[in-house]
Model the fold of this input.
Amino acid sequence: MSELIEKKSSRIKVGLYAAVVVFLAYTMIFGFRKSFTVATFDGIEIAGYSYKTILVISQVLGYLLAKFYGIKYISELKRTGRGQVILILTGIAWLSWLFFALVPVPYNIVFLFINGFPLGMLWGVVFSYVEGRRSTDFIGATLAVSFIFASGFVKTVGAWLMTSFGVSEFWVPFFTGLVFALPLLLFVYLMEKIPPPDEEDIEFRTERLAMTEADRKSFVKEFFAGIVACILIYCFATIFRDIRDNFGAEMWKELGYFNQPAIFSKTETPITLVILVLIGSMVLIKNNYKALQTAHAFILAGFTIAGVSTLLFTSQSLEPIWWMMLVGLGLYMVYIPFNAVFFDRLISTFRYTGNVGFLIYLADSFGYVGSVGVLFSKEIFRVQLNWVTFFSNSVMILSATGILLTVFSMFYFGKKYAVLSRQEVRPDQQVHTEY
Done:
């Protein structure tokens, strides 16, 4: 009995340690990514197009290509040398901000692309430290909410540098990176100390291994319709999140909250806490299939909250600050499960040997295609809407579509599970030998 208690205590300690370390590590990484969005670059246009939008598109294109490349790179990632990979990629991203500040407009736009590509690889590298554990739901939720908290925190730091020290819009990203550089070194070192999954983790959650091209093709073939539905859901969530994240400064300005640096943290911190409790509590669900369907339920609730809160806001029944908080909560309830628990539980439910990085990057690649497409459409077709109107109209339409896709996904994976349940070996005990 005492041995069991000791094992459980050790597992809890490792889980808490891993959760705190990856949360802080990815928050530091975010310091090299989004601080430029706090600037509005008012009055600067390139060939009649908004300079800020072109910057966002350039960075997102870097992310987009990184996600497609990451389908192969992250799925084949080994478990050695990951800390060095993180520091090299982050260093490239930081150096790009130096050249962004030094090179004149419009030639500095290319450095947003150079910044986006290496950073786009890092989520999969960091998540590889924590997947395939009984505590992955909690650790993954903590890691996933880091970019909700970090998004607001990094922008607050950027806005603080601008208002308190007079740092120009072009130098803000570089100096923000300087603030986060030394803490990043510390937390990468601590992340390297996270123990690998133990035998019981492997028994409950399946061993996570590098995937070959044949492995990837076989997995997609087996779950094609469900994967397509999930990618479309994730695509909608990515579009929403990116518009809110990249153009939050513009929306707050339109809503009458400009020059209030703390507003970003004020709205994102409560969202972080709620999401952490909701998704982290899934660690209590031992049955992988039930956890997978619970994740679907969270996604359905997220689309509903985003759509209903936006409807109330457009009818002037909800205050702007409450709308930004609730719509953010709803969107992250859709977005976070895919980055934290959904794919991990999917692999565990059907006992496929592989890794979560493959599925996350597969979904991410198409998600960023949608995000880039929306930005291009607004600029190229000269859609004459302010960001609040454009965002709110899109949320209501796509939330309804997202609800339908989520219901389909629930039934699809439910049917798959029922078919396997009728076989001699239950899905949560079955191991596919073709891998």
